[in-house]
Automatic annotation (TrEMBL):
Gene3D superfamilies in alphabetical order: MFS general substrate transporter like domains
Entry's transmembrane regions: 144-162, 168-191, 203-224, 236-256, 305-326, 338-357, 369-390, 396-419, 431-451, 463-479
Region (Disordered): 1-33
Biased composition (Basic and acidic residues): 1-30
Keywords, sorted A to Z: Membrane, Transmembrane, Transmembrane helix, Transport
Major facilitator superfamily (MFS) profile domain location: 81-484
Name of the protein this chain belongs to: MFS general substrate transporter
Native organism: Pholiota conissans
Protein's membrane topology: Multi-pass membrane protein
Amino acid sequence: MASEQKSRIDNSIEEVEKTSSEHTNKDGDAHQAALGPKAKRKHFFSPLDPAYADAVHLDAEAVEYTAEQERAVRRKIDNTVLPLVICSYVFNQFDRTNIGNAHIIPAFNENFGIVDNNKWTLVLSIFYVGYCLLEMPANGANRFFFLSLTFWGLSSLSVVYAKGYAGLLVLRVLMGIGEAGYYAGMIYYLSFWYKRSELALRISLCMTGTLPGAIGGLLAFGLVRAHTSLLQGWQFLFLIEAIPTLIMAVMILFFLPSFPFSATFLSPRERAIAQARLNRDHKPQSHGGMTGWNGFKAIISDVNAWMFMLIYASFNVGVATVSYFLPTLIKDLGFSSINAQGLTVAPYVVGWFVVLIQAWHSDRTHDRGWHIMASCAISFIGYVILATSVQKSVGAAYFALFLVVGGNYSLFPLVMSWAANAFSPTSKRGVGTAFIVSISNCVSIASPQIYFDPNDNFRKGHALSAGCLLLSFMTAFALRTRLSYLNKRNASRLSALSKDEKERLEGQDITTSEIWDNDPRYVFMT
């Protein structure tokens, strides 16, 4: 089969070369025209025909375009890809965190037998068991995302009619299995569409918990008041927030393109431009190159991967708890259950602006390390205030929640876009992002357990979270220093090469090979 595909593309190249005097391929569509209009699959799980990817890469090497034409293609990608990704993530966060809003409703706790804080934290922790076990192998495009959304949507919907503590634990495990691979898979997916300097802002738009947190708080504020002879308010909360997930799964399947080379919303020339702009940045490959196993071995032997994992795991202790405990923390300040849900909206809205500003400025300045340290510092201050003043001042404690939400949630797009920029080739990038999220979420199994002191307003939990943010800050500083050193070393190695050695490097097959992160030409974003 591989030889047949190679023969097809070789024949296409020969046809193009015969007519090169008439068509110089500046439009970037000649190789695609020789193959037909659309890449196809043999069955649901089979990969797309790689001949189409090769054709787009070849056209990308020849296409000529202006900066305005590149911006036009990027706008089309933004208008088609981002809305689908944003909606899928919003519904993901609804289904994951609505249990936090439900927990402060007595009827929910009575239905599932949650009689103390220990039972509650176990419900939160057990979610991450299936999540961690299946994170690594679960990477893919629209078909994987369709299955993922469907699985966790059905699990969330089942909570509506479930009863008993054991039933809730089982559904939380199943929901974790459904969500496994979604986050890392989406980061990996977006790296096929956007340049390194564009990624943080897009991730912040697509995958920050602040926007769904604000919307979820408003929905909970209204839905928990609903009551019928069949359903109570907390059941409406799970029902209304699970159904859109299942609808979104179908939309993802039919409308989310797998790769730029298979994007039907782009013309052949636009597909070539979309690929060319990335090739000049980091050359992602949809197939071929390093195998997944080799990518895994490359990741576990890479010091950078472990440092990224430590940064993520440290700040994720706070993220994994605040999304569930925020309504409880506000209620403990003296507010009613319903008002506490409404008061979650403001910290999330302010946090959303912090996330966007941090990501926008990070992309604009081509910096990740200092911005990550700034976000760690903001969240650290918030936790210190909570640990020292929560019993003294309601205003100070509520203000601290703004700092915690803004600081914590702005870290995710910054750290993951930094990691995606630091690994090459593409297969290593895909395994690397999954590795970071998977290992870090193993820590998240224990994260809810740090809030073991409800009788002391969770002050010890806040102090532990502050310590984790300090560790994340120091690791980010060390990693930035290391990557800056590697860039200087690579520049020195490159300048020391002879003319013949440089020509051999430049003469590699640029249509199929990527610059690996151990190549002296590779420049790490710091």
